[in-house]
């Protein structure tokens, strides 16, 4: 008998009809002879409605403890309704809150991290032949004895953590698309579904704008060797398997797995930095003090005549203002001349574990962009990723030409759906 | 410093504006130098909406455990929103679920009884100077480790149980009327607000149709000596104090405190029962097996010629069918001739601790009904209560004439509001 964890997001349990459809799917998996643990998010709009109510009673930033108490009510509703819908199909199930499922977290309300999973009641209920339903997105801290929530993508993390703790065969993430795509189908119409991908590659894609899986869940899956299966809740097609090949194990796969783009970054250039040891360290120490997430860094070659250099880096657009003011505050200290800020950049990221063993990937990438007359402003590479910065209005075209250049194009256009958050 | 428990029902926290009004009231009580524990129900329509969802996912009677999980989410929403609204007024508070407030119950999902209240966290938070908010209507069972709900009027019971455990000075029950009335103002327009009433009298009124307080909460308050104050959440008027005078202690009060009517009962008459010892016992054993709640019982004097008698009793209308079929099943055994069923009866109940020391109350009651040409079909009396059964369409008129006959009439008509459930 296999143990399967199935996670359904908010759009999959948006109303009574959707819940009944999920119940049917869960019961089918159970009847096929599997042990089934279902992780659910709050119903469709519940979270937004609760946030609206919170804003209506108090315009002040809410107390995180009370916000978690408020938001964690959403999964209690969806999970108990799912239990009823399953019972309606003649099968017994039991729903458990994060607390009851043993989902222990630290005490960071709103974005708690799982520190331990001890699913005693879940295991017992499975042994009793029941389908088990667990509230996603929530846990508890045993020092404060309070409810916590896990933040964006928290239900994915709940599912993966339970799969790891219960040694599940697979953790199925149900969504409204057919799986992970080689690129965003809204940008690259010929993007195609990926059948298998390594968790390492998936991490890069998730970190660079692929919204189907959340990076924390993928990290957790990778660390604990959990196999993920991202698939559609609207059909029975195979989706994308996210695997964890062992060190040295070869997976048959293309050089490049996917092409992601990101239009949410800005570039800051520190102009006229004295080219002496320790200056870069000083600058990035100042930036780190703002807790900004710097992505790509490029330092120009020093102009020997002046003894000055420029340092450019990218970061999320909304973090730019505080970094700029932190740097300006220490301008005389550091001794730079000026700052330039540019939020009209786009980032293209090429991901593929196959790059490790293939030379010439960068050359093929640059050639493709050159043929399309797209200028590259910054470059950054790792073992399985190449990122380039272009003008913002070039990046979608860049994605299409690169997608084609690496033979990722499908023969037909993908069908585009929306996406969810929790 | 006094400790005050304040309970607000669903209509008092129906929307963001109502919650802000409750927050203001709670903060005022806190600023006046009191320790305040607030018990809240789910917001206005939440419970009905959740029940509708449950019915939509499964027409089967829902599993009680999952129903309790579902319904208990309602108070988590209202209590965390109230905490935010209180914070918005600059005061710190903390909200606790039934589990966190130490509300231990038996394991009867849907109508659990409180077995122990151990409000350690509540006491600690009060000691820290915080306002405490507790979810009404819910508790937990530590054998099953599950959430339970307390059934109708459960939030009142939560408030009273907390008041008892914390040794509160008073438990204020906020509602949409000004207090307990001498009769239902919709029936008796001259009904007036009662200033003080004993818990004994309140029990009789609650058991006989006064919907403002629930009988379980009054019983709990009486057993634990908790003073209740039933008052309006829309003004600052004094409401009705429900007191627990010590044995022999005299309260200055009228003979009769209130007049209740009830149109939800039916009368069953067992015709032609052999008038031999043990027959009545046999009949009521059969009735008891259906768990029906028999109210008034009258046995006619036996007609010596036939050796047969009739036994009549009243019970809630919806319990009549199963009682009738249980009796018919054993017809030959018991040896009665036939059954008569009558759901066109009304019950009038006169309540007053002053009756104990006053003779002639029954005579005055019967005289008033006689003058109004209202026929009495059954009578039942206790130390502080007289119940009479009349035709259903006479009972409202009966209430008005009796209300006047015992000098309960106010000089002006009461203002009528609606009522709530949880």
TrEMBL record, chains A, B:
GO MF annotation list? aspartate kinase activity; ATP binding
Q: Which reaction does it catalyse?
A: L-aspartate + ATP = 4-phospho-L-aspartate + ADP
The UniProt entry, under PROSITE patterns, shows: ACT (PS51671), ASPARTOKINASE (PS00324)
UniProt: substrate binding residues: 47, 75
Q: Which GO terms describe its cellular component?
A: cytosol
Binding annotation for ATP: 7-10, 175-176, 186, 211-212
Pathway(s) annotated for this protein in UniProt = Amino-acid biosynthesis; L-methionine biosynthesis via de novo pathway; L-homoserine from L-aspartate: step 1/3; Amino-acid biosynthesis; L-lysine biosynthesis via DAP pathway; (S)-tetrahydrodipicolinate from L-aspartate: step 1/4; Amino-acid biosynthesis; L-threonine biosynthesis; L-threonine from L-aspartate: step 1/5
- Write out the similarity annotation: Belongs to the aspartokinase family.
How is this protein named in the record?
A: Aspartokinase
Q: Which organism is it from?
A: Mycetocola zhadangensis
Query: Where is the organism placed in the taxonomic lineage, from the top?
Result: Bacteria, Bacillati, Actinomycetota, Actinomycetes, Micrococcales
């Amino acid at each position: 008998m296999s143990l399967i964890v199935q996670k359904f997001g908010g759009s999959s349990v948006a109303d009574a009809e959707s819940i009944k459809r999920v119940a049917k799917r869960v019961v089918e998996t159970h009847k096929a002879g599997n042990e089934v643990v279902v992780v659910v998010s709050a119903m469709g709009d519940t979270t937004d409605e609760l946030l609206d109510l919170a804003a209506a009673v108090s315009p002040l930033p809410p107390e995180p403890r009370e916000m978690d108490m408020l938001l964690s009510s959403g999964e209690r509703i969806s999970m108990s309704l799912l239990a009823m819908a399953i019972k309606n199909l003649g099968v017994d199930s039991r729903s458990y809150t994060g607390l009851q499922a043993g989902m222990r977290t630290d005490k960071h309300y709103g974005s708690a991290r799982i520190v331990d999973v001890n699913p005693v009641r879940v295991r017992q209920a499975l042994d009793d032949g029941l389908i088990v339903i667990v509230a996603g997105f929530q846990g508890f801290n045993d020092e404060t004895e309070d409810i916590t929530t896990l933040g964006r993508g928290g239900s994915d993390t709940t599912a993966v953590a339970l799969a790891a703790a219960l040694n599940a065969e697979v953790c199925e993430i149900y969504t409204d698309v057919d799986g992970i795509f080689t690129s965003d189908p809204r940008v690259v119409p010929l993007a195609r579904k990926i059948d298998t991908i390594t968790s390492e590659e998936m991490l890069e894609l998730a970190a660079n704008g692929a919204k189907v899986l959340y990076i924390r869940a993928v990290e957790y899956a990778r660390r604990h060797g959990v196999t993920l299966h991202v698939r559609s809740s609207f059909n029975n097609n195979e989706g994308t398997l996210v695997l964890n090949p062992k060190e040295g194990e070869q997976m048959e796969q293309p050089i490049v797995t996917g092409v992601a783009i990101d239009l949410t970054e800005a570039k800051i250039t520190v102009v006229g930095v004295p080219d002496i040891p320790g200056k870069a360290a000083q600058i990035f120490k100042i930036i780190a003090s703002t807790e900004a997430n710097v992505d790509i860094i490029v330092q120009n070659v020093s102009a020997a005549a002046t003894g000055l250099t420029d340092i450019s880096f990218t970061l999320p657009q909304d973090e730019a203002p505080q970094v700029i003011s932190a740097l300006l505050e220490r301008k005389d200290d550091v001794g730079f001349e000026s700052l330039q800020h540019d939020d009209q950049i786009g980032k293209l990221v090429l991901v593929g574990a196959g790059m490790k063993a293939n030379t010439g990937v960068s050359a093929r990438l640059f050639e493709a962009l050159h043929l399309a007359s797209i200028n590259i402003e910054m470059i950054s590479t790792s073992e399985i990723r190449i990122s380039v910065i272009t003008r913002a209005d070039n990046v979608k075209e860049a994605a299409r030409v690169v997608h084609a250049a690496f033979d990722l194009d499908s023969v037909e256009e993908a069908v585009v759906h929306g996406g969810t958050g929790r």
